[in-house]
Amino acid sequence: MTTRIGRPASGQTTQPPLDTGLGMLLLAAFPMILLLFQGSMATALAAVLQLGLLLTAVGLIHRGQEIRRDYDLDETARAPRLPRKALGSVLLGVLVMILAGHHFSDLLFPLVLGAMATGLSLAAFGLDPRTDKRAEDPERERRLRMEGALERIERDLKAPVLEVEPLGDAELTRRVDALTTGVFVLVRTLGERPADIDRLQKPVSKFIEIMTRENRTLIERWKGRDRALARQRYLARVSALAEAFGERARSKGARTGRDVFEIEADLLWNRMHRDRAA
Questions:
Q1: Which end of the chain is more exposed for a tag (fewer CB within 10 A), N or C?
Q2: Is 14 helix (H, G, I), strand (E, B) or coil?
Q3: Hey, is 10 helix, strand or coil?
Q4: How far apart are CA 35 and CA 56, in angstroms?
């Protein structure tokens, strides 16, 4: 779980104060507050609605500025779905149009003044982010997609190991773990591009499906008298399965134009790197 940049890691968020521009904008609320006490009931209701528009607009713009600050600091930020600063500016324009409507008999001038207020608000407070930063970096997007696919494959390959672990046979568990780890290292070696990962998804799924079936058979026979025979048969079958997967995966890699020696060298390097990490 990543900590949001610009937020305290402790989980207690600190709200930044209102910008000076928004603080000045709130001064427009005072004449409306006076109308609550000096005008008629209809005037007071109109003042309440106008105050609501103003406070909503200021709140939207303030929240939009917070999102903009986080967006500028986060390298993988996504654009907000709701353009809060734009909506707040439009509400300010509507408020100005309503206020101007009390002083002009023609609707044209209030509309012009409302449009000017919206434009000035956008110029003063800026626009909302409109594009995802992640989409601006195709190479990063490709790398993240591949890492996500590899993480899913590694997690799926760990499932057969977890199934045989409760049997209490440490050597059996170690060998199954070695087999599935070897399959994953091969997938990582051959998966240089998203297309390579996609091409290997089906063989990996088939491998896991057969492993699961073999695990089920082993577990059913584990409590019987032929445990040793079932164990020997199981190890022979899953070893052959892993070998068959390796041959098929290597042939797919060779068909993409990669040299067999290059594949083996990369495979050895990835095994060494994984062993050091372990």
A1: N
A2: coil
A3: coil
A4: 19
Q: Tell me what pLDDT residue 137 has.
A: 60
- Token output for 137: 């970096």
Angle between helices 138-164 and 194-221 (to 10 degrees): 10
* Residue 39 pLDDT grade (very low, low, confident, very high; cuts 50, 70, 90): low
Q: Within a 10 A sphere around the Cβ of 175, how many other Cβ atoms? A: 17
Indicate whether 276 pLDDT > 70: no
pLDDT of residue 94: 92
How many degrees, rounded to 5, is the angle at CA 200 between CA 278 and CA 150?
A: 35
Q: Give the whole-angstrom CA distance, residue 106 versus residue 64.
A: 34
Question: 3-class SS at 4?
Answer: coil
Six-digit token string for 59: 């709140």
Q: pLDDT: is 116 or 191 the higher one?
A: 116
Q: Which residue has the higher pLDDT, 278 or 250?
A: 250
Distance CA 68, CA 127 (A): 9
Give the residue ranges of DSSP H helices in 74-83: none
Nearest 5°: the CA angle 259, 264, 266 is: 95
Please name the residue ranges forming H helices in the chain. Answer: 20-25, 29-38, 41-73, 84-101, 108-125, 138-164, 170-190, 194-221, 227-255, 260-277
How much is the CA Rg of the chain, to the nearest whole Å?
32
197 pLDDT above the threshold of 50:
yes
- Quote the CA–CA distance of 103 and 62 in Å, as a whole number: 30
- Contact (CB, 8 A) for 199 and 252: yes
CB 176 within 8 A of CB 237: no
DSSP 129-182: P-S-TGGG-HHHHHHHHHHHHHHHHHHHHHHHHHHHGGG--HHHHHHHHHHHHH
Other beta carbons within 10 angstroms of residue 264's beta carbon come to 12
Instruction: Tell me how far apart the alpha carbons of residues 217 and 197 are, in angstroms, rounded to a whole number.
Output: 30
